[in-house]
């Protein structure tokens, strides 16, 4: 570990695993990743940092239609702030 910088890794914390196989969990994590990337891409194109209210107006309905619960949407807002 000499002369090497530590590596920072972030992970989504999962408190519950769906019954049965882990396929449901993997699918959810993929969907979450793709939705998060969609939001980041659109914010990047905006070129400005919108308020939390503006984030809610623009993305809440879209993320809910994708199947996310309200607390998942809030996690996206919190992380982006």
Q: N- to C-terminal separation? A: 33 Å
Total number of strands? 0
Q: In the residues, how many domains can be counted? A: 1
Mean pLDDT: 79
Order of helices and strands: HHH
Number of helices, counting only DSSP H or I runs of 4 residues or more = 3
- Gyration radius, in Å: 16 Å
The main β sheet shows up as: none
**Poorly predicted ranges:** none
Strand coverage percent: under 5%
- Helix percent reads 55-70%
Give the overall silhouette: globular
Q: What's a concise summary of this model?
A:
The chain has helices spanning 23-46, 52-65, 70-80. It is an all-alpha fold and 81 residues long. The longest helix is centred in the middle third of the chain and has 24 residues, at 23-46.
Overview of the molecule:
By secondary structure, the chain is mainly α. The protein has one domain (23-80). The chain has three helices and no strands. The chain has helices spanning 23-46, 52-65, 70-80. The longest helix has 24 residues, at 23-46.
